[in-house]
Design brief:
alpha/beta
Length: 261
């Protein structure tokens, strides 16, 4: 099993402090600001197209309404996914997984792809993920890390593509969540920094079956440094430059931070 070398920081939905989250502009900017890993969210449209989008509904991050799963991809292409963040991003669109993979491969980025689906869509989303990876992800690059808060989604991926590394997302650490992650063969455990404790870190780092620990979403440098010093493997941040001195550039692009993963 290939070891995953996590960086101290993973760009959360791209450079989402400076550009509309989960857009190609945010992906490209994360790279330009020094990120080597980028996290994003995957959902299925009504016509079974995998797209990069966090919310179940369109209202927060586009000028549309309704649910992703009841909207066709053709309809999604007509939506503005950038103006909500800033007028300079007018016309930004919701990317397909295919286009996201193509650009990330071109930029030689490592990816964490989070599966978001209801139980009825889980198998189809896993199939589409694997199909698009086979089409657009070079064998010369490390396989993306596949994460989900739904163990069933991870189990399906494991069955269909056992070579793909997996990660379980849990809102808080519990021994049961740790057991599930280990039973699935997960490589890492992703959890909310607001509920995390040093005791939980010690449990996850047990010598018998250690899991890499990744915390979301940290946008405070001192907090990030505290957890990294304690032994956390990586943190998710909206700001790819959080750990870089001097502070971030592109100050005029700053917008409120988005804590949810």
């Amino acid at each position: 099993m290939t070891t995953i070398h996590f960086p101290p920081l993973i760009a959360h939905r791209g450079a989402s402090r400076y550009a509309p989250e989960n857009t190609l502009t945010a992906l490209r900017l994360a790279h330009d600001l020094g990120a080597t890993w980028v996290e994003c969210d995957l959902r299925l449209t009504r016509d079974q197209q995998a797209v990069v989008f966090h919310d179940a509904t369109l209202q927060r991050c586009t000028d549309g309404h309704g649910r992703i799963r009841t909207t066709t991809y053709a309809a999604l292409t007509q939506l503005d996914a950038g103006s909500w963040f800033g007028s300079q991003f007018h016309g930004e669109t919701i990317p397909t997984l295919a286009r996201w993979l193509q650009l990330a491969a071109q930029l030689k980025l490592h990816l964490n792809l989070e599966l978001k689906s209801n139980p009825q869509q889980a198998h189809r989303l896993a199939e589409e993920l694997i199909h698009q990876l086979n089409l657009h992800w070079p064998k010369t690059l490390a396989s993306p890390l596949i994460s989900s808060s739904r163990p069933n989604s991870l189990a399906i991926v494991k069955q269909l593509a056992p070579h793909l590394p997996l990660a379980l997302i849990a809102a808080r650490y519990t021994p049961r969540a740790q057991h599930i992650a280990l039973a699935l063969g997960c490589r890492s455990f992703h959890t909310d920094q607001q509920t995390f404790t040093l005791t939980a870190l010690e449990q996850l780092k047990t010598k018998k079956q250690p899991l890499a620990v990744l915390l979301y979403t940290i946008n405070n440098r001192s907090l990030a440094e505290k957890w990294l010093a304690a032994g956390v493997d990586s943190i998710f941040s909206d700001d790819p430059q959080l750990l870089i001195t001097p502070g971030p550039t592109h100050e005029s692009w700053k917008r409120p931070l988005f804590p949810q993963i």
